[in-house]
Specification:
The chain has about 550 residues and is mainly alpha-helical. Helices cover about 70% and strands about 0% of the residues. It has a domain of about 190 residues: Up-down Bundle (Growth Hormone, Chain: A). The protein has 17 helices and 2 strands. A two-stranded antiparallel ribbon has the order 1-2. α2 packs across α4 and α13 runs antiparallel to α14. The N terminus is likely disordered.
Length: about 550
């Protein structure tokens, strides 16, 4: 759930969101898998303004000395994140609330499975979303259509008809998949590669993410409590509508890059892609149907299917890179070093992304939100702790990394520390479920907030190095595919969470978190153990920087 980062000088550390953002396509032809890529073309859609910036980015100066298009993209990101996190803050409670209370009447365990699958699907769908932008219509139109689909999804959720709710959830997942890899790409395209303002621009971009994600749970919570769930979902739709207004109005201030198709599909490729996509979708539907017959549970069947796709795609990418003749022996050593880090990332996100799942259940049923300050924290308000903690702690953690007695902390050590921290947070959560069982026995308001703060510290250790390490260890000819691997680590982690939840229905939440935390800590210790070896494999990379 990375949403704000201090920025480092290397470009690899810049591009993680919140959550995760795909970096702008490289213009370096040596990173292309094809020796002669098709030339970029300009999208001819009716949304393309007549004038776009084609001059060097240094000549484009507006607010705070940044390109004129940046303030508009900051507005877009703030309202889009307001929309997404506002919806997510109340989604589990809507799914598990009784029909009489305006919900779908699904049990807590199934609800948490659905939330895990939903998160996994969002990151899986970011992959075709990026492909569609790079090869069909370009980043700006892809983002626009993704936003429209998201808004339609929120509108469906605001209609008090159960069937419309499921349609809305699917639409939001699809739309987010199109926005996630492309909006940050548009922001990156505002700056030339040698523009020194790029880092500061992304800092402002991620700050806008945090503002939106901090405010939205509070707003949708208030609306839900006073006017019902559907009013909260409508607020998310309004937020997305405001994002689209800013996006359309500010398009004339962007660079031409936003409307370029970097590697357009040839006619024969287009037909082949359509056939393969159709066959793939049909196969997924068929396998899910078969799983449903055996498991007698559609949510469980979907969970297994999503996890299998994410894990299978990850294995396929690793295999492709290891077997490719374009990968050198040194790069294969780098890949072997990356495997342990990737596994650690999977477990990190397995725990971390349960903020809107099992931890949301704890907020609702196991926590007394009464504070000594005279106000009561709603369960949804705990979803605002992470962005608030990021804003406060990111500069401190960044300063610690930069000033630690003049010594640098090895990248792998930071990574392993993050995995260890999130594992400890799971043990703490398990203790909370064991000690405060609900009913009259409720945890104090600060306990869950403390857990979120602990996880935020882990996030701040992981985020600056996750993509940085991925790009550092990636084979030169597979730089983009390595970025996909990072997205797949997040998707696989959430898919794994869904599978584990589905198979631990008879296990208490305390035991669930104890087991997950213990497994994660073991993996973290393993990453610590191989850290010296991994650093040696990266020595040539570090020396070249």
């Amino acid at each position: 759930m990375v949403r704000f980062k201090w920025m480092r000088s290397d470009s690899a550390a810049r591009s993680q969101e919140e959550r995760i953002f795909m970096p702008a396509p490289s213009t370096d032809t040596e990173n292309k898998t094809s020796p002669e890529p098709a030339p970029a073309v300009v999208s001819a859609g009716r949304w393309r303004p007549r004038t776009l910036r084609t001059s060097p980015s240094r000549q484009d100066r507006g607010l705070f000395g940044h390109p004129r298009g940046l303030p508009w993209m900051l507005n877009v990101e703030m309202w889009e994140r307001f929309s997404y996190y506002g919806m997510r803050a109340i989604l589990l409670y809507f799914i598990t609330a009784t029909i009489e209370d305006g919900g779908l009447g699904i049990d807590d365990n199934t609800g948490t499975i659905i939330m895990a699958v939903y998160g996994a699907a969002v990151f899986l769908l970011a992959i075709p979303g990026g492909i569609f932008a790079d090869r069909v219509i370009g980043p700006w139109p892809s983002t626009l259509y993704g936003g429209v689909v998201i808004m339609a999804g929120h509108v469906c959720l605001s209609v008090p008809i159960n069937a419309m709710a499921w349609v809305g959830i699917v639409l939001v997942a699809i739309g987010t998949g199109f926005i996630k890899p492309n909006l940050s790409t548009i922001v990156g395209g505002l700056y030339d590669s040698d523009d020194p303002r790029r880092d500061a621009g992304f800092q402002l971009f991620y700050m806008s993410v945090n503002i939106g994600s901090f405010a939205s749970p509070l707003v949708t919570s208030w609306l839900k409590n006073h006017y019902g769930y559907h009013a909260g979902f409508m607020a998310a739709a309004v937020g997305m509508a405001l994002a689209l207004v800013a996006f359309v109005y500010g398009r004339s201030k962007l660079s031409a890059f936003a409307f370029n198709v970097p590697n357009p599909l040839r006619p024969e490729e287009r037909n082949r892609l359509l056939v393969m996509s159709g066959a793939g979708i049909a196969a997924v539907v068929l396998v899910t149907w078969v799983l449903n017959i055996f498991l007698h549970s559609l949510p469980d069947a979907i969970t297994y299917m999503v996890f299998a796709i994410a894990l299978g795609a990850s294995v396929a990418y690793f295999t492709l890179m290891f077997r490719s003749p374009k990968v050198t022996s040194t790069e294969r050593v780098h890949l072997r070093a990356y495997i342990a880090l990737w596994v650690g990332a999977v477990l990190f996100f397995t725990i971390f992304e349960q903020a809107s799942g099992k931890m949301a259940v704890f907020a609702q049923k196991n926590t007394d939100g009464t504070t000594p300050f005279g106000w009561v924290l709603s369960p949804e308000a705990y979803q605002s702790v992470n962005p608030a903690a990021i804003i406060v702690l990111a500069p401190l953690v960044g300063w610690f990394f930069a000033r630690r007695l003049g010594r640098s902390i090895p990248t792998v050590v930071k990574f392993a520390t993050a995995v260890l921290i999130v594992g400890v947070s799971a043990l703490v959560t398990g203790y909370g479920f064991q000690l405060w069982t609900g009913g009259e026995n409720l945890a104090p308001w600060w306990f869950l907030a403390l857990v979120f703060v602990i996880q935020t510290v882990g996030e701040l250790f992981l985020s600056p190095v996750g993509l940085a390490t991925t790009t550092a260890l990636a084979p030169k000819q597979f730089a983009s595919q390595a970025m996909v691997l990072w997205l797949l680590a997040i998707s696989t982690g959430q898919g794994l969470a869904g599978v584990v939840i589905a198979n631990t229905k008879e296990v208490s939440d305390a035991v669930y978190f104890y087991g997950l935390g213990a497994a994660t800590i073991v993996v973290a210790l393993g990453v610590f153990a191989v850290a010296p070896w991994t650093q040696r494999q990266m020595a040539d990379i570090n020396a070249s920087r």
